[in-house]
Specification:
By secondary structure, the chain is an alpha/beta fold. It is built from 10 helices and 8 strands.
Length: 293
């Protein structure tokens, strides 16, 4: 049975996706919305450099509000596991590893990892001529993170990312990702399907779930208009949720059902978006995943 989680980014990020709220405040808002699970977010000034991160305050807040941290979104700003600049690649591995250890201390299960990031001005952009080399660097990075997964018990969940703003981006589809992780231990490396990313990249989220199959261990549930990464509550966009629900049932998905809705592209407050997410999760729990309305 699905266990819905509300991503803390709804209360942790502002309209420009800048980290602004403290963790305790975000968790309090998630609990107030009626959710008992969340996806933590390793963003903000304290996550800009590798180092020791004290999980104590977060653990206290999780216990106070009775919330389980099923997943954590590892750092994104300045992170690129495919970087051709070795210092950036190593730093990215270290920062993601820190987030995995942090979640491990809290008893969480999976770390959402972006396999690629934007290239810097000093690097050649992704192109047909260098995409293979970029994939090799990602493989080296994930291989290093597998050691952290074994150490912490936190599974790596590589997320499908959109190619709308980064042409020739490697590993954008579940076909590519599934082939890429074939040699990694399933208990340490799985996949996260972002429904909105799949849609705006020209893929059917339900079909992508079937491709990921038993390696799918996390979901980012968000709706889009078919062009932009909107992060709307399902029902405001074009995704066929009934088809996705059928696919998830067929593959026996039992990972994290994280609603990753944001308020930035709406006229609603974060609290109003959270209330929509609460109503949606109850509707889906009662009647199965379906098209809202």
């Amino acid at each position: 049975m699905a266990k819905y989680s509300l991503a803390s980014g709804l209360f942790f990020l502002d309209a420009e996706s800048t980290a602004r709220h403290d963790v305790a405040a975000a968790l309090e808002s998630i609990a107030a919305a009626g959710f008992s699970e969340t996806e933590l977010m390793a963003e903000g000034d304290e996550w800009q450099a590798p180092g020791s991160h004290d999980a104590g305050p977060c653990r206290e807040a999780l216990e106070r509000f009775n919330i389980f941290p099923h997943t954590i979104h590892t750092p994104m700003s300045g992170v690129n596991l495919a970087s051709s600049i070795e210092e950036i690649r190593r730093d990215s591995v270290a920062r993601i590893g820190d987030a995995m250890r942090y979640l491990g201390e809290l008893g969480g299960r999976a770390a959402i990892v972006h396999p690629t990031g934007a290239t810097t001005a000093e690097e050649a952009p992704y192109a047909l001529e260098n995409v293979g080399a970029a994939a090799e660097r990602i493989h080296r990075s994930v291989s290093e993170l597998v050691d952290v997964a074994a150490e912490t018990g936190v599974r790596i969940a590589l997320e499908n990312l959109p190619n709308t703003s980064i042409p020739c981006r490697p590993l954008k589809s579940m076909e590519e990702l599934r082939a890429f992780i074939a040699g990694f231990p399933p208990e340490h490396v799985g996949l996260c399907l972002d429904t909105g990313h799949a849609c705006i990249s020209g893929f059917d989220p339900a079909q992508q779930a079937r491709v990921a199959s038993e390696r799918l261990c996390a979901l980012h549930i968000q709706d889009v208009d078919g062009k932009d990464d909107c992060h709307w509550v399902p029902g405001h966009g074009v995704i066929d949720w009934s088809a996705l629900g059928e696919a998830l049932t067929d593959i026996g998905f039992d990972g994290a059902w994280t609603i990753e809705a944001l308020a930035g592209r709406t006229e609603s407050t974060a609290e109003q978006v959270a209330a929509e997410c609460t109503a949606l999760s109850k509707e889906w729990e009662a009647g199965g995943m379906s098209n809202p309305g």
